[in-house]
């Protein structure tokens, strides 16, 4: 079977001056390629399904998304871990998320598995939603936790914005938080 071929000149690293470049060539077997394609397809499908459920979201630690969502806080810090932005606080931090159709049913928060011994409360519009104790996980991977929102937030006279506040317990830290979403 004919193959598309293209010429490619490989140049030794020491001969490249004043140029920025990055090349990654994944190497695999034919079976590995099929498995990789299936994994990418599955992840893409999961991402599209999550986006379809998302009413609003904020990426903690990123300037524009936080500004767009009315970030406020005290004794709070941001950083990057494994190419993802985060925010935590010895005090508190909050965001205002839009819920124009009042159809949000769940608050979804992403944490990192390496965060342990952290205790905090999540409040929505000033009312307690959950007490959280982060204990991490063996692999240190990111994980999501979904918290059911009160039925009262779905009533016709309820507000069309939700202020989500992360309040540290005494002598503890709220977060790190990597993603905050309200879902249908």
Automatic annotation (TrEMBL):
InterPro entries with a match to the protein in the record: DUF4986, GH146_SB_dom
Source species, domain of life: Bacteria
All copies of domain Glycoside hydrolase GH146 substrate-binding, residue ranges: 49-183
Pfam family, one: DUF6805
Stretches assigned to the DUF4986 domain: 4-25
Cross-referenced Gene3D superfamilies: Galactose-binding domain-like
Region (Disordered): 48-83
Protein name from the UniProt record: DUF6805 domain-containing protein
Organism of provenance: Hymenobacter humi
